[in-house]
Amino acid sequence: MEGDPFSPFHLGQAAGPFTPVQLLLGDELWDAHAGSTTSTGWGQASPIEIGAALMQGWIREYLRRLRRSCWMRKSRVALILLSPLLLWLPSPARVVLHLLLFAHLSAWLYGVFAPNSRLFGPIFDRGSGKQKWVALTFDDGPSLDHTPLILDTLKEFGIRGTFFVVGAKAKAQIDLLRRIIEEGHALGNHTWSHPPHLAFEGVVGRRRIKEEIQRTASLLESITGRRCRLFRPPQGFKNHLILESCAEEGMVVVGYTARPPYHANGLPSSVLVERVIRDSGPGSIINFHDGWMPGREWDREEMRRTLSGIIQGLKEEGYRFVTVEEMVGRAESDDEA
User: Fold this and answer.
1) What does the pLDDT look like over 49-75, one tens digit per residue?
2) CB under 8 Å to 290, separation ≥6 — which residues?
3) Other CB atoms closer than 10 Å to residue 191's CB: what's the count?
4) Is 104 among the catalytic positions?
5) Is residue 132 helix, strand or coil?
6) Region 136-158 average pLDDT
7) CA distance between the termini of the chain
8) pLDDT tens across 270-279, in order?
């Protein structure tokens, strides 16, 4: 990737450390370049004609995507177009424009890191509050150490969950994936390889993002016979490319309402159970992790106690456990009504 002359890696090497304008412009140029296509059917066309045709297609595709993009993306392009004024504007106006650039970058980072931020597009982080429904979700599996324990616990209570699986792990643990399906649980897409910095790969382009989503989607469809509609980005981090790619695939980006920590951090299960129940309400989506980094996963017995305590506590408060698919379906029905 670093050998590509259009890459912002080279923009940065040529121009030194990134300024805010270079960072925004580099990302936009690379996204446009990554979306361009080439053709082998040029016949006897001259190099100038080929170059003009490629440039025309590149610009047309870029503008098409920009029209369909979120307002954050459009505001970024507007600031890029205004940035040459920094060379000619009087000092007070330059200060204002710099403040606008800083505010935009701050908002952009908030949109990336805040799990349920809607700055880049819609996030489904809570079901309808009309029913006392909650959904349990499990990311990063399937895992030989934790998935069987989770499935056994859910089966014990007679409830279904939603598993956001990593494609490469699902392919390696196909029997566990089949068990998840056979026991009536819903599946979600959690990318192919769980790249931790996917939301920062505007400098790599949407091709990587689409490949991560599509490879897992194809695997799940080959097993279940139907297209998976649910997607959750790794770490919950996202950008406009992720949400646009999901929209093109007809997928719903799922956030969460409450989440126990990745591991207990020395806290007793009773404290974790109390926190999750306190933070939950009608339509809540609770996010567990089905295994995590080696050496930092939940202790199996600790996880079983915590999961069982949350289920038991919410059942006692009259909640019904459903899948995220059911929540999405109910929300869509309510919108149509």
Assistant:
1) 656 666 666 677 767 777 777 777 788
2) 138, 139, 140, 141, 142, 143, 146, 147, 150, 163
3) 24
4) no
5) coil
6) 94
7) 49
8) 888 999 999 9
Q: Is the sign of the CA dihedral 188, 193, 199, 205 positive or negative?
A: negative
Instruction: Please state, in angstroms and rounded to a whole number, the distance separating the CA atoms of residues 257 and 285.
Output: 5
Nearest to residue 135, comparing CAs of 335, 304, 303, 329?
329
- C-beta separation of 30 from 7 below 8 A: yes
Tokens of 74: 């459009």
162 close to 186: Cβ distance less than 8 angstroms: yes
Alpha-carbon gap, residue 252 to 188, rounded angstroms = 10
Catalytic residue among 146, 185, 240, 289: 289
The Cα 217–Cα 188 span in angstroms is: 9
Average predicted confidence (pLDDT) for the chain? 80
Known catalytic residue at 289: yes
Q: What is the mean pLDDT of residues 261-283?
A: 80
Annotated catalytic residue: which of 27, 31, 139, 290?
Answer: 139
Query: How far apart, in whole angstroms, are the C-alpha atoms of residue 259 and residue 137?
Result: 10
Q: For the domain covering 133-336, report its CATH number.
A: 3.20.20.370
Residue pair 115/256 in contact by the 8 Å Cβ criterion: yes
Contacts of 15 (CB under 8 A, 6+ apart): 22
In this structure, what token pair is assigned to residue 337? 């009504």
- What does the alpha-carbon distance between residue 48 and residue 46 come to, in Å, rounded to a whole number? 5
Q: Where exactly are the structural domains of the chain? A: 8-113, 133-336
Q: Is residue 134 classed exposed, middle or buried when 0-12, 13-18 and 19+ CB atoms within 10 A define those classes?
A: buried
Residue 185's nearest CA partner among 137, 225, 227 is 137
Q: Which long-range contacts (CB under 8 A, 24 or more apart) does 171-179 make?
A: 171/219, 173/141, 173/142, 173/143, 173/144, 173/147, 174/223, 176/141, 176/142, 176/144, 176/147, 176/148, 177/142, 177/223, 178/223, 179/147, 179/148, 179/151
